[in-house]
Design a protein that fits this description.
Blueprint (H helix, E strand, L loop, with lengths): L15 E4 L8 H10 L8 E7 L7 H7 L6 E7 L7 E3 L8 E6 L9 H12 L2 H11 L6 E13 L1 H16 L15 H4 L21 H23 L2 H5 L2 H4 L2 H25 L7 H9 L16 H14 L4 H15 L8 H8 L1 H7 L5 E2 L4 H15 L6 H21 L14 E2 L2 H22 L3 H34 L3 H22 L1 H38 L97 E3 L34 E6 L5 H18 L2 H6 L1 H30 L21 H4 L7 H5 L4 H6 L10 E2 L17 E7 H4 L15 E4 L4 E9 L5 E3 L9
Parallel strand pairs: 1-2, 2-3, 3-5, 4-15, 5-6, 6-10, 7-8, 12-13
Antiparallel strand pairs: 6-11, 6-14, 9-10, 12-14
Helix pairs in contact: 5-21, 5-22, 7-10, 10-15, 10-20, 13-21, 14-20, 16-17, 16-18, 16-19, 17-18, 17-19, 20-21, 21-24, 22-24
Length: 897
């Protein structure tokens, strides 16, 4: 098939194009069968056929075959030659189901025939234009007409297209980023349970270590030993512990030793359970092993299940994509989630168990710490001596009472040593101690004697001596009780038996965490980790595919300018391309002798531009089509030296746009610069041949272009991913390996389709509908990506203002604004009745949308056909032929052509 005329692939809903001319397909029948196989939505079957006018009858069976699957609508572009004066067509090309557009003009060397046909085929394949043209052909004689065309094309420069495509692919894929860390507050609730190591609310009251089990009994023994030790400490630390026999009934060192022993046994049981019940799936055998060690596991909580993991992953993935994260960033976060949720096994908790209840902490808990009381020895000596001195000031009795007070202080110190809490009643455990009895005895005796001598000298009354004695004795007792309490508290703090309580709580919490996340959730965690990893690898694969495709496509666009240039068009007498196509008028021929049919064998001379009441299109085309410029100005090529590059000044509102004359390059094909032309045009845009009826305006890309392309690519990628979740649910690893190739192919098709729309209409048309997300309402953050029906206006996509299109489509009848696709020698074949002609005005809907859309369209024709896609806007006039020019014949009985 001739790919220079026929599109690479039809856009969804567009007419299916095929080329039956000589030099086209080797097997026309196969081309027809391929066209029939192209799906067309809504039961509508549209075919746009390019054929040679002389071959219409010979291809009768092919046209009939196009209707073999049901009623079909056919528009035939019959390409004629200069010598043809009649058209023979088959019964299959009669209205209302078919019509023929007869192209009688043969372009010169400056404008190849494909350059004329390609944009015309693109315009006619648009479904709205196709239907309007076919309907108009049904209203003319024989359903055959010669088209007269005037078209404006809004497109991007090659540089802008390549830049927008590169930025769109980069916006889809993104750069490589580190994985980071997964946070529970950033994921759905079902996945957050796997990250925060918490316990589901439904399991908050479960008894993980029942007392009937081995671990529960050991835990209870530890708690009992701790309670005994704390109770003994409370009884010993007061006055009763020193002055009564309570201390003889309390065995604090024995209670601490028993606590240490029971704690070590409990730690051994927990470590045994951690090492015995590992794996990625909790089986009945594992439950039995844990039950033997005293760990009772419940059933899976209702807050989480294996079946809900992949839907939660899907929601999380779509949420990240909906926030605008590129594929690689989403893959990095999913990789972090996969690493965080990967089951490490309960054996990995042994290190944490050693940190909580390791041998060092047990050794420190069971250590023997000395009991020290009385403070510093010099201070004890001085204080006891002072109190004894005060007691000895009683005259005569002071010689006895002073030393006796010192003996009392020393006796109490010795009693503290005998009843110290770090010594068992039977003496089996003794941490040793010191209470300072000797310094107190020495200080008391010396102070007492000194006080007695002082009393003899002072000769105090009896009541004063008695009072001082009472104060001294009470002070000695109170100081001894203070020293005892402080010493007991200090020893208890250094031994720290209450640390065992913290160890028990931390160990129990570790057992619960291990039971939930390493045993109960083992299979769920493995499924989540495998699923998140599979999606991450799939996204990275898609990103690599997109990068490879985007780079290759940009390189292809970049190499177009390096191809050999085509010959530049020679300027004609009206400043356009040197072609035989020219503006026509109903007054170009008369009804006299000059209109004889016998003259048709000789080609008449080309008319002078000044002889036509309407000037042909040119770069100096008047702003107001209703008041064309003076035709005389077109006779002098020097006139164009002072003309602006834009045919319509309104385009200057978009600095990235520029208007080019009719000789600019057709951008959907490789742009080949004419010698010396690229350097003179903005942005280095190449110049090449184009039909005289086509005016091209190039933009540098509007503000919404890249975002629109990224949105289309993201929406398609989401639809691709949506087909993978079922496989990931069944087998994450296997599904990922199978899906990478298949989804890579689907992504390539998505990129092909998006690139084609970028080339065909600058992505103004929405992507084809897909059966994608199962529940679009569940993903509100993706609404802007999954629903691509709302498109920006053309000005925001191309950067070219639409005011020139509005002026072209003014409601006033202006036949001179179009160019008939026939030579001057063919004008006499056309009908004389100006009312017989039909006119189709068409504009893409994207040019009407947007902020610039409402005001500038006021005054345009009411019969404008608003197309859903396309980059062309203009007027297509269907000029009927004389009744005796068209002949309907039957093909001769013969085999299949």
């Amino acid at each position: 098939m001739n790919h220079r005329v026929i599109p690479e692939r039809p856009l969804p809903g567009h007419a299916v194009c095929l080329d039956l001319r000589a030099g086209g397909p080797d097997d026309p029948g196969a081309a027809v069968r391929a066209a029939l196989d192209v799906p067309q939505p809504g039961g509508e079957r549209r075919f746009l056929v390019v054929d040679e006018a002389a071959g219409l009858v010979a291809h009768q069976l092919l046209y009939e075959r196009l209707s073999s699957y049901g009623p079909a609508q056919i528009v035939c572009l019959a390409v004629g030659t200069r010598g043809e004066r009649t058209l023979r067509r088959t019964l299959a090309l009669r209205p209302p189901a078919a019509g023929v557009l007869w192209l009688l003009d043969t372009p010169g060397d400056a404008v190849p025939g494909d350059a004329v046909l390609r944009p015309l085929v693109e315009v006619l394949s648009t479904p709205e234009v196709f239907d309007a043209v076919l309907g108009s052909l049904g209203g003319v004689v024989h359903g055959v007409a010669v088209p007269a065309v005037r078209v404006l094309e809004h497109d991007l420069t090659d540089e802008a297209r390549a830049r927008a495509w590169r930025q769109a692919v980069e916006g889809l894929t993104g750069p490589e980023v580190p994985a980071g860390a997964a946070a529970a507050e950033q994921v759905p609730g079902a996945l957050a349970l796997l990250l925060d190591e918490g316990v589901p609310r439904s399991l908050a009251g479960h008894d993980w270590l029942p007392r009937a089990g081995r671990a529960g009994a050991e835990l209870a023994a530890c708690e009992e030993a701790l309670e005994d030790a704390v109770d003994g400490y409370e009884r010993v630390r007061g006055a009763a512990g020193l002055l009564t026999g309570v201390g003889r009934t309390v065995d604090l060192p024995g209670d601490v030793e028993r606590l240490t022993r029971e704690l070590a046994r409990f730690r051994t049981t927990v470590a045994d359970a951690f090492g015995a019940a590992g794996g990625t799936r909790l089986t009945a055998e594992h439950r039995g092993v844990l039950r033997d060690r005293g760990v009772e596991l419940p059933e899976m909580p209702r807050e989480i299940s294996r079946a809900g993991i992949v839907p939660a992953l899907r929601d999380h993935t779509y949420e990240m994509i909906g926030k605008g994260l590129p594929l690689r960033s989403v893959a990095a976060r999913l990789s972090a989630l996969s690493a965080r949720t990967a089951p490490a096994g309960s054996a990995s908790r042994l290190a944490r168990l050693d940190a909580i209840c390791g041998p060092e902490r047990l050794r420190r808990l069971g250590g023997r710490y000395p009991f020290t009381a009385g403070g510093s020895r010099p201070a004890a000596f001085a204080l006891t001596g002072l109190l004894a001195l005060l007691a000895g000031v009683w005259p005569v009795l002071g010689w006895f009472l002073g030393p006796a007070t010192g003996l009392l202080a020393a006796g109490l110190a010795h009693l503290m040593l005998r009843r110290r809490p770090n010594r068992s009643p039977d003496g089996r455990i003794d941490g040793g101690g010191a209470t300072g009895a000797a310094p107190r005895l020495a200080g008391g005796v010396l102070g007492g004697l000194a006080g007695a001598g002082l009393g003899q000298f002072l000769a105090l009354p009896t009541w004063a001596g008695a009072a001082v004695l009472t104060v001294s004795v009470v002070a000695v007792v109170l100081l001894a009780l203070r020293d005892w309490t402080r010493a007991v508290d200090d020893w208890w703090a250094r031994a720290d038996p209450e640390e065992a309580g913290r160890i028990l709580r931390e160990t129990h919490a570790l057992v619960v965490t291990t039971a939930v996340h390493d045993w109960l959730f083992a299979e769920v965690r493995h499924h989540c980790s495998a699923g998140a990893g599979a999606v991450a690898r799939l996204l990275r694969g898609l990103a690599e595919t997109a990068d490879g495709y985007g780079g290759a496509q940009v390189r292809e666009w970049d190499t177009w300018a390096d191809e050999p240039p085509e010959p530049a068009p020679k300027p004609g007498p009206v400043g356009g391309s040197d072609t035989t196509a020219a503006a026509w008028s109903w007054d170009d021929w008369g009804d006299g002798a000059d209109d004889a049919w016998s003259d048709l064998d000789d080609a008449p001379p080309v008319r002078s531009p000044a002889a036509a009441p309407y000037p042909p299109p040119s770069p100096a085309f008047s702003e107001d089509p209703a008041h064309p410029a003076d035709p005389a100005t077109f006779a002098d090529p020097a006139t164009f030296a002072d003309q602006p590059s834009s045919a319509y000044p309104g385009s200057s509102a978009y600095p990235g746009s520029s208007a080019y004359p009719a000789s600019s390059t057709y951008p959907s094909s490789p742009s080949r610069p004419a010698p010396g032309a690229a350097a003179d045009m903005p942005g280095g845009l190449p110049s090449g041949p184009a039909p005289a009826w086509l005016e091209r305006r190039y933009g540098d890309g509007g503000p919404a272009l890249v975002d629109t392309l990224v949105g289309d690519l993201v929406a398609g990628t989401v639809l691709i991913l949506d087909g993978c979740w079922a496989g990931i649910e069944r087998d994450p690893g296997g599904a990922e390996r199978v899906a990478r190739a298949a989804q890579g192919q689907r992504l390539t098709e998505l990129l092909d389709e998006t690139r084609l729309r970028l080339e065909r209409d600058v992505a103004a048309s929405p992507p084809p509908p897909h059966e994608g997300l199962r529940d679009l309402g569940a993903f509100t953050s993706l609404a802007a990506f999954t629903d691509r029906s709302e498109r920006p206006d053309a000005a925001r996509l191309t950067g070219v203002a639409p005011d020139a299109v509005a002026r072209l489509l003014l409601a006033d009848e202006d036949p001179g604004g179009t160019v008939a696709l026939c030579g001057p020698e063919h004008l006499r074949l056309l009908s004389h009745d100006p009312l017989a002609a039909r006119q189709v005005r068409f504009v893409p809907e994207a040019m009407r949308r947007g902020a610039a859309g409402d005001d500038i369209w006021r005054g345009t024709a009411e019969d404008v056909v608003w197309t859903g896609a396309g980059r062309h806007a203009g007027i297509l006039r269907l000029v009927p032929l004389r009744a005796d020019v068209v002949h309907t014949v039957r093909a001769e009985e013969a085999g299949e052509p």
